[in-house]
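Appendix C. Worked example: Alpha/beta hydrolase
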Amino acid sequence: MRRKIPLLALATVVSAALLPLTPVNAATLVNAAPGNTGRTPIAWTACEDDPTAECGTIAVPIDWARPNGPAVDLALARRTATDPAARIGSLVINPGGPGGSGVDSVLFGGRFSQEITRRFDVVGFDPRGVARSHPLVCSAALIAQEPSPFITSRAAFAERLAYNARRRDDCRARSGPLYDHVDTLSVVRDLDAIRAALGDGKLTFYGKSYGTLIGQEYAELFPQRVRALALDSNMDHSLGTRAFLDTEAATTQDSFDEFAAWCDRDASCALHGRDVRAFWAGLLARADRGEISDPRDPEGTLTKLDLLRQAFGAFYGPDWSELAQWLVALDAGTEPPAAFSAEPAPPQTEVVPFPLQVACEDYHLPVRDYQEYAAHLRRSATLAPDMLASPIAIGLAAGCLGQPAPIPNPQHPLRVSGSAPLLLGNAVHDPATAYVWAAGAAAQIGRAATLLTYEGWGHGVYGHGDCTTRAFDAYLVSLTLPARGTRCPAVPPSAETGLQRRPSWPGPSEPSAPGWANPLF
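Step 2, the predicted output written as structure tokens:
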């Protein structure tokens, strides 16, 4: 399967049409029974996609301020503990995104060690507005018209605001009343209802990437109900517009620097012996002039943004070798490596999933006008001279322009009091969730937080070598935390196999296989 170019910030994820959609009908929400908020046990049956796993649903209120009002069904999947006599309870997981499917992670992910699957029922859920849980959808034709986040004029800034307004109206009309209630605080309340319905007195949870925000805010809202929260590749939900964009630009550039350094020292890199930065700059310039053919579509060309997204996605693994081969093939106009071979086009649909609204209800990133936006882009280009900006950061900033305020879950420093200890893990060279984010989140949580540092690369530390995996497993199983200040050595990407070689959870554009694309974080 070709690893897909990560069409980031979700507003641009036309490829998300690959996600199997639940039929959308606003009336099914309006007329739904009130949420049971976990009072009724989940009725598990064999999953249609994989009968070896069990699937079920739980009804939760659309608006938790009206717990007896209209509800939405959330989809769940679980694989029961392989050693019932040693079972500890349920491990609820979230793969991030927003837009990642916890159900797909259980059905197709295969990520956890045998010790975890022996001791826990692994339970994944599709958050409200995602995948099988009444996905937010928009006109496919409208999403395909999204302007570039590299806004270059006042007129283009005004065009972007007008486009976002049209898109919000379209998505709300197609998605129904749930559209305005997909913030992470609502998901946190859903998660507590799932915990109760599973029969667990306290929550054991693994969240990756954007899923760490769910865990962090669960510890804020329900500190006495925490057994263990293992948070992998952490968000920092305290950052304003400038700090968010700057930290993202810096960590994206750091990942490019690591790729270039690897090519300089490793003869297996297809760009070894060449000036990687000059080569890359030349490709970006050619893409800007429309001179690089799209290997998947001989009639089309790749844009500068396409190249930035592909490189960024390759840093998630990291998949440096494949990226270098692809860049050389692009330059020469030859057949790309097998990882990028063409595949059938996704089926044409009227609507596509659009979970960016989740982030727009979690992040207030105001930009007054084009002059301020241009200043952000200039600063990002200074911090990231090769990558120009973080594709996800500018995608989110542009995609949420004009979002009506106030939003349900704006940024704030974490306020955690009375929680059981939490484990936070992060790679030093993570392209998406900067290491400084994890350090910031740990400082905000305070004494309850232990930060595990992975000295290597990529997005997600669980499975990258024995050190990180054993630390997470010991915490989840026996609540044993690593010593404060523990740093796990890097595992060279070429040396990773098996569990360690799975760089990311399956996301909406890749429901059944690991790959580069992550919907947002």
